[in-house]
UniProtKB/TrEMBL annotation:
Organism classification: Bacteria, Pseudomonadati, Pseudomonadota, Alphaproteobacteria, Hyphomicrobiales
SUPFAM superfamilies: Multidrug resistance efflux transporter EmrE (SSF103481)
Keyword Transmembrane belongs to the record: yes
Protein name: Carboxylate/amino acid/amine transporter
Key word Ribosomal protein present: no
Species for this entry: Roseibium alexandrii
């Protein structure tokens, strides 16, 4: 699952923007594949905690190399830490989901996020939503139901966790609209890594101390620690690529490229776990992607009309 920072300065270079965004979307599912692989021996809560710890450490190393250590929290400490907590919660939901379902299926369901964001923006920010976008939302949610139905029957309510991920990520993006980012990428990465580490670490301590569910802390061996480090590094690099892409191209240009995640997740999921979505899942994916692309188009039209 990815990170985005849409509130950044733009200097147009469409080709570079497309290449950077494509690169980010192609490597992000590798993080989810590793999380699924590790979940056979480490609880997803610990994996998610490891992701944010190592993301923080990677960010800290870069800060030391650049001889620039930002103040924790930056210019917006409360907002930045809240961003980190929302991202950590979303990542936890997603990593639990991929333990039980294929990464491609989970990512496909997650892509109801543009529909959820549109609904939340209408309810909270009072943004206008016309009948066309309402229709697109209905189509996208229908696609999600097509994918969810067999998974609900097979693995139960855990199949709804990608939807929970989408809701949490939508609140993260909504927070960015309410409070535009005022810090640089390194400060944001450090803040998110620190906030996520503290938040998930506290949950992990409580869960292991009081035997909540099946949470058991496992000291990772060298191989597992290396994979957790790789997850943190991928998270750091993917976020940087996305930010760099949005600095060079508009959201309307880059938004359709996010669906490359499904392609990458399908490829790596097949190579590592021999998972491949069935025909009905592809029908649902088609409806979700089509709906998301149409919502992006209508958002561009709305902004152009507003001047």
């Amino acid at each position: 699952m990815r990170q985005r920072s849409p509130a950044i300065d733009v200097s147009e270079n469409p080709l570079q923007a497309i290449l950077l965004m494509s690169g980010a979307m192609l490597i992000v599912p590798v993080m989810d594949i590793i999380a699924k692989y590790l979940s056979s021996s480490i609880h997803p809560l610990e994996i998610t905690f490891g992701r944010f710890v190592f993301q923080f450490l990677v960010s800290l190393v870069f800060a030391l190399i650049l001889l620039r250590l930002p103040r924790p929290g930056g210019q917006q400490p409360f907002v930045n830490f809240l961003r980190g907590i929302l991202l950590a919660s979303a990542s936890l939901c997603f990593f639990i989901a991929v333990k039980y379902m294929s990464v491609a299926t989970a990512i496909s369901i997650f892509f109801v996020e543009p529909m959820i964001l549109t609904i939340l923006a209408a309810l909270i920010l009072k943004e206008p939503v016309g009948p066309r976008r309402i229709g697109a939302i209905a189509v996208g949610l229908a696609g999600a139901l097509i994918i969810l139905r067999p998974n609900l029957a097979e693995i139960g309510l855990v199949s709804l966790l990608p939807v929970a991920t989408a809701v949490l990520f939508s609140f993260y993006l909504l927070l960015n609209r309410l409070y535009p980012v005022r810090d640089d990428l390194l400060t944001i990465q450090l803040s998110a890594g620190l906030a996520g580490s503290l938040y998930l670490g506290a949950i992990l301590i409580v869960a292991t101390t009081f035997d909540v569910g099946d949470v058991v802390f496992v000291w990772p061996n060298a191989w597992q620690a290396g994979l957790l480090t790789l997850i943190g590094l991928i998270s750091f690099c993917a976020h940087g690529l996305v930010v760099a892409a949005f600095q060079r191209g508009s959201a309307s240009l880059l938004a359709p490229l996010q669906y490359l995640e499904i392609v990458s997740a399908t490829l790596f999921g097949f190579l590592v776990f021999a998972d491949f979505p069935d025909l009905l899942t592809w029908v649902g994916i088609g409806l979700i992607v089509g709906s998301g692309l149409y919502i992006t188009h209508r958002e561009r039209v709305r902004k152009q009309a507003a001047g």
